[in-house]
Amino acid sequence: MSEAVYDRIGVNYGRGRRPDPRWQAEVDAALGRYRTLLNVGAGTGSYEPGDRGVLAVEPSWTMIAQRPAGAAPVLQATAEHLPLADGVFDLAMALVTIHHWRDWTAGLREMQRVADRVVVLHFDPVLHSDFWLARDYLPELTDVWQGVPRVQQVSAALDKRVVVHSLPVPWDCTDGFLPAFWRRPHSYLDPAVQQSMSGLQLLDPDVLVRGMAQLRVDLENGTWERRNGNLLAQESLDVGWRLISTEERVSLST
Prior knowledge:
Strand order of the largest sheet: 3-2-1-4-5-9-6
Helix content: 25-40%
Distance between the termini: 34 Å
Structural class: alpha/beta
């Protein structure tokens, strides 16, 4: 995805994408101890640590403009071409971003060139495609995610020992990414909620309207609950989010 595209779909992104504290704790545990950190594809700064030296890298001016006051300094650049010397950072992280890169393998090579350790938060496109919103209402999302690497591919592209940690989505997740409202289906009908989901914004608008119209009908006539009522008793759901780290981590959950 080009930065120009994200300049379009990233408008008001920070409003709907607020870090979930449970995910923040897991990310912090994965990062471990470091002095200097590079945040690649940093966006508006979600999950960016604030207690040590951080440099953010982000190609989109729209996203950079939404970074809060006091956020880490930001360098406008792409993951595939980091204008930095070899080995200058203790750690490089890429959170919910590699599926937007033009060449994710090149981006990971660059991260490994400039940092000793790498932490990536990524979703598995196959498991994402089985999520009820994609499966029952917007199967065209599979095309949007075409070319997105599987978790095994990302792990194989890292040149050190890798630890992969599942990150289930809490039912009341505060971060408005696409599967965040899995137990709150009415939320998907809200255009403001849709605005923060890059997958939905990359669909043909007619496809999105059609899918949301069917979801509305199914919520009103009880079809959604008949299909997915078992989810209403669950506290979290695994939809394929994984923390991939090149070093052992301290687990906060089982």
